Amino acid sequence: MPTQIDHNFLNQVEIEQIINMFDLLPGVLFWIKDRNHVFLHANQAFIEHKKVKGLSQIVGKTDHDFSPAHIAKQFIRDDKKILSGQSVTERLEVNMTQTGDTAWYATSKRSLSNKTGEIIGSYGITRHLQKQAMALTGVEAIKVPVDYVRANYQQPLLIEELAEIAHLSVSALERRFKKYLTKTPKQFINEVRLENARRLLIESHIPISQVGYETGFTDHSYFSKQFRLFFGELPSEARSNYQALIQPNNEN
Description:
By secondary structure, this protein is of the alpha+beta class. It is built from twelve helices and five strands. It has two domains: about 5-130, PAS domain (Beta-Lactamase, 2-Layer Sandwich), CATH 3.30.450; about 135-250, Arc Repressor Mutant, subunit A (Orthogonal Bundle), CATH 1.10.10.60. Strand 4 (about 100-115) and strand 5 form a beta hairpin. The termini are far apart.
């Protein structure tokens, strides 16, 4: 039996056949983009998620054609990191559901290289965590505290409080968050707050100090530090970068 990859065999396989295998993965969204962040391919789940009739309505477009500005901007920021050789593995992020609501997804992304090693594009997969979790034993122990955090992120939140509403010990709650979300409860709370802070920075003219306060951060310097660690830019930079991004469109 072969113990190594049979490259001769793989060279005989049409790449389209391999790509089409992603249609066999229920609930998993798959896409390929070029260096300009333009969609080149997507699987059937992705097409249905975007509520279009076929692949022809995906190819040639970017995330700005399908997602709110603040979410599309983060997707493209990710693309730039991937194109520089970085990768994303099972990261928790906000995306839009088919109904237009926001929900949490686990996403992985990688770069695509040609035969000379030059990076020419990227690909990724993402899955709706709550949909996947429905098939998991004990999912309510995660769904309840997750929904609670999303509804109350502006307020002070204690891990003990989340454990109590989930009817679990703190250690059991932390184990389940790690298992299903690959995050600790504290990390999850922080990321929900940061995601909502970024939304407010982009969609409103609220002062930055107030944005932090309204999303659960009582210390402005801590808010700025956490925002930069998570998004790679300060809150003020996120706002000014977004304004610079849409300015050309406003001038047309």
